[in-house]
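URGENT: need a sanity check before tomorrow's submission.

F., can you look over the Heme oxygenase record below? I want to be sure the sequence and structure line up before it goes out.
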Amino acid sequence: MSAPAPCLAEPSRCKRLKAASSRDHDSVDVQVMAARPFADLQRYACFLQVQHRFHGSLLGLYHDAELNRLLPGLADLSRFAAVRKDFNDLGLALPETPAAVQASAAHALGWLYCSEGSNLGAAFLFKHSQHLGLDASHGARHLAAHPEGRALHWRAFVEQIDALRLTEQEELQAQQGAIAAFDSYRAHLHAVFDARR
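C-alpha cells as predicted:
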C-alpha cells in the first residue's frame, strides 16, 4: 500500500466500499432505531455504552503510526474522548476501554470508512438527542458535527481514502474491514440492548 496515487481511472474506492457494505449499513441503521435509543435517558445511556464499545475498540487504529502516515490527521478524528465526556456529562460510570481491533492497514481502512461515515448519519441521531435535552456541549458531544461541517469533513476523508494505491488483495481486505465493522457494531448493539429485555 502506498499513498497517494496521482490519479484514479477507476470508480471511487469509497463508492466500492459503500456498495460492498450497503446491506450491512442498512441493517445497522434499522436495528439502531428499533432499539429506540432516544426514548429516554436510560435507553440513551445504553446507546452510549454501544458507542463506547465501538469507538473504544478503534482507538488503536486512529493512533496507528502507519495509518496516520497514509491518512494525515487521522489521530485527531477519533470520537472516543467525546463519548467518554458524554458519560461524564450524564453522571454515568465509565466502562473500561474495550479491547483494540487488530487489523492490517488495508483491513483497517474499511473499519475507518465505517466509523467516519457514521458521522453523516449522526446528524439524524444528534437531532433526536436534542429531544432529551442533550447537545454538543452536554451529553451528545460525540454526535455533534465536526467543526468544519459534516459534509466537508467527510469529503476530505474520502479524498484521502480514494487517493491510496492498493493492490486487488488490499481492496478486498478494505471491503472486508467495512463489513466487519458493521458486524461488530451490530454485535455491540445486541449485547447491550438485549440485556435490557
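My own read: The radius of gyration is 17 Å. The chain has a mean pLDDT of 92. If you see anything odd, call me.
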